[in-house]
Amino acid sequence: MTEPTEPATSSPSPSPMGPTAPPRDPTTVLHPRREPFEHGLLPIPKLIFSDPTQTLIPLKQKLLEQSSNHRVDSAAIAESLQISLDHARLVLDTLSSVLPSDSEPLVTSKPGENDAVGAHVFDLVLFLYIQSYKKLLPRTHKDSAAVADVWPSTSAFDGYLSALSPLQLVRSNSRRFMPSQADEEAHQLSYLQKHLANILSLLAEPEEGEGEESLVLTMDRFEHLGFLVQFGDKGSDGNSLSQMSPFFANSDPDMPAVPVPAAQVHDWLLQNIASSLEHIAERTSSKENGPASASDQDVAMADACAVKVSTGTRGASFIEGISKSSYVKHASDIKGSSIKVLNCQESAIYILAPLRYATVYGCSDATIVLGAVGKAVRVEHCERVHVIVAAKRICIANCRECVFFLGVNQRPLIIGDNHKLQVAPYNTFYSQLEEHMNEVGILPTVNHWDEPLALGMVDHHDSLSHPAGVSDVQAESATRVDPDQFTNFLIPKWLGGESTGSTENNPFTLPDAYMASQHRNQKNLGEIRQLLREAPLEESRKRELSSALHVYFKDWLYASGNIRQLYCLQGE
């Protein structure tokens, strides 16, 4: 089979159905699983095939022959794909973060044990197939002048855009806004619709004959489609894919189900995808024709200054457009298991909750604290942002002048067009942090904050055209924050929510150099306080000294970005 043509549009045509059509049961609507498309794409050229099916079918057979239990480790992946061991381990780690089942051995394995468990071959080939996916381009705001007023860019880089590469110019021309959730879902469904026959051919096996007509799917192989699609909003928390299908719904668990012709599965899935695209078109059309809603995540931000804090229809919480203020969310405030922080600037944002996934996109001059993220964090198109997070893994893409204070169980991944990134060890805590980390499976004894892995500067999954030769350029990596410049970040107790937690200190051990620097700073502070108390100064001179110290402290607050922490003192 050959590579299908990529869908030209991201949204389906509106349905002729009128407003009197009965509402659909949400549990019967087929959705793409967003996680593989949002957190599972790796810009490694050797993983992107011009004809995925022709490459992956023999690769699948080779891997199955090498394994007695259908699982392969990073060495087998590296040898089969002709990639480095580091990249093969990255494939394993990334795959484990986007698998749908929490009972999958690769998901439950502890940090460093993924090789011992290995990836299931059928999950791996589906993961490799979707590396051909092309993401929607970020949208620009309809009123670019208004955005320019609200989103001033004062970076030192801004005066030198003429010296940047064409790729950098494309990415610097305007503030980026994520495509709407409806557009992304429609785009992902259209991709699956075009590629479905090829995807099924990777899972199917022949039965009594030759050719496509004889291909069948067992229930076990059918379940692997749950990597890409799900019914309803709950995903892995709901029914399995086979129980939602007409083929295996009433199968006796003690008896092997009869394999189903792949052609029947293909037709059934195509019918459900078409129905879902129609459902999205109806929903989008009704929102465009109806009054705007603050909770509508499928409509573009109406105003550059607007603030939207809401829960999307698929269980993700959104924080959008926070400006020059402080904002806090606790576990009880969040519906679902993922959060997206979008287009916030000059703010301090605290997400003190256990999460599975988190995305920070298009933010500038902000401090963002993410509690505990058990699957993956992605930070993209941000400028001069401080991100503090305890997470299983983090991916940083197309950011500049950002600092990341990390407690991460896997190596930070850096991709795209980045400038002047810095990493530092995790530097804060709140009372329920360790409880949240335990809940999502983050180990405080493992922290790879200072081992960033930089891939290519070009993301082959975007829809931009790239200048010749740029695809071979490696992304700029991150430097370590100087220990003498490292400071702890204090989350005010009144922002910490319920004080029922037991965490009283940073659960991640600081490296020796950073611990020694802190001790020196504390000692110096004590000595300065003692000198000031004992200084034989007249009252007028003491006032002058106090005023000078306040000026220097204020300058430090602005220069370090810590002025953002004071927004919480301003009141609402």
Automatic annotation (TrEMBL):
<dbReference type="InterPro" id="IPR012945">
    <property type="entry name" value="Tubulin-bd_cofactor_C_dom"/>
</dbReference>
<comment type="similarity">
    <text>Belongs to the TBCC family.</text>
</comment>
<feature type="region of interest" description="Disordered">
    <location>
        <begin position="1"/>
        <end position="32"/>
    </location>
</feature>
<dbReference type="InterPro" id="IPR039589">
    <property type="entry name" value="TBCC1"/>
</dbReference>
<dbReference type="InterPro" id="IPR016098">
    <property type="entry name" value="CAP/MinC_C"/>
</dbReference>
<feature type="compositionally biased region" description="Low complexity">
    <location>
        <begin position="1"/>
        <end position="12"/>
    </location>
</feature>
<keyword id="KW-0963">Cytoplasm</keyword>
<dbReference type="InterPro" id="IPR017901">
    <property type="entry name" value="C-CAP_CF_C-like"/>
</dbReference>
<dbReference type="InterPro" id="IPR006599">
    <property type="entry name" value="CARP_motif"/>
</dbReference>
<dbReference type="Pfam" id="PF07986">
    <property type="entry name" value="TBCC"/>
</dbReference>
<dbReference type="GO" id="GO:0000922">
    <property type="term" value="C:spindle pole"/>
</dbReference>
<feature type="compositionally biased region" description="Pro residues">
    <location>
        <begin position="13"/>
        <end position="25"/>
    </location>
</feature>
<feature type="domain" description="C-CAP/cofactor C-like">
    <location>
        <begin position="306"/>
        <end position="442"/>
    </location>
</feature>
<keyword id="KW-0206">Cytoskeleton</keyword>
<protein>
    <recommendedName>
        <fullName>TBCC domain-containing protein 1</fullName>
    </recommendedName>
</protein>
